[in-house]
Write a structure and sequence with these properties.
The complex is a heterodimer of chains A (113) and B (112).
Chain A (H helix, E strand, L loop, with lengths): L3 E4 L2 E4 L5 E7 L5 E8 L3 E10 L2 E4 L6 E7 L2 E6 L8 E8 L8 E2 L3 E5 L1
Parallel strand pairs in A: 2-11
Antiparallel strand pairs in A: 1-3, 3-8, 4-5, 4-9, 5-6, 7-8, 9-10, 9-11
Chain B lengths: L2 E5 L2 E5 L4 E8 L6 E6 L6 E6 L5 E4 L2 E5 L3 E6 L8 E8 L8 E3 L3 E6 L1
The chains are: A mainly beta (113), B mainly beta (112).
């Protein structure tokens, strides 16, 4: 698991409430990523970080924000959760930009009711 | 547009029945093709990276190969414990190795 811990592992929340998911890594990897996985779509990139306080948008970033104040932590926030954000969220880390592979956490299953 | 397509969506095999999974891709300037295995309720687990056409990598009963347009994951004499969803991914053009486009996966079931 490359020392990646996601929390919580499961969460049920109501529409319109803010939600924050946490990814914590112990590998000192520079790059961190948030993906969502939905039936029929596969894994899609939400946001990523290439260093502390350096973040950028991925393919499906609308409705999400991220923050990275420390190397080891990458937070994903749903400002106002909607039912379309019901999904399984995965965090991944990467040691360097090239000639390496990303390692994934165990996922957070989020249900918005 | 960068794209990854996997086939078949699902594959059912008898134990010992060898087969292959396909991953076709279109990307500007391939910088690696990744294979992952995902078990239910778990995150993707890295299997292989292939960087150039003609390259092959093996791990136990799995062998991955790469051409200029597609990759194959060959499974030789599979066992029930090989049952999982196999994912293929390529880096987005201009992005790091973690900015990935994934195929939708092939769900493999191996029956004893």
């Amino acid at each position: 698991d490359a020392g990646i811990t996601q929390s919580p592992r499961h969460k049920v929340t109501e529409t319109g409430t803010p939600v924050t998911l946490r990814c914590h890594q112990t590998e000192n990897h520079r790059y961190m990523y948030w993906y969502r996985q939905d039936p029929g779509h596969g894994l899609r990139l939400i946001h990523y970080s290439y260093g502390v306080k350096d973040t950028d948008k991925g393919e499906v970033s609308d409705g999400y924000s991220v923050s990275r104040s420390k190397t080891e932590d990458f937070l994903l926030t749903l400002e106002s959760a909607t039912s379309s954000q019901t999904s399984v969220y995965f965090c991944a880390t990467l040691d360097r930009a090239m000639n390496t592979e990303a390692f994934f956490g165990q996922g957070t299953r989020l249900t918005v009711v | 547009e960068d794209q990854v397509t996997q086939s078949p969506e699902a594959l059912r095999l008898q134990e010992g029945e060898s087969s292959s999974l396909n991953c076709s891709y279109t990307v500007s300037g391939l910088r690696g093709l990744f294979w992952y295995r995902q078990d239910p309720g778990k995150g993707p687990e890295f299997l292989f990276t292939l960087y150039s056409a003609g390259e092959e990598k093996e791990k136990e009963r799995l062998k991955a190969t790469l051409t200029k347009k597609e990759s194959f994951l060959h499974i030789t004499a599979p066992k029930p414990e090989d049952s999982a969803t196999y994912l293929c991914a390529v880096p987005i053009h201009g992005g790091s190795q973690g900015n990935l486009i994934f195929g939708k996966g092939t769900k493999l079931s191996v029956k004893p």
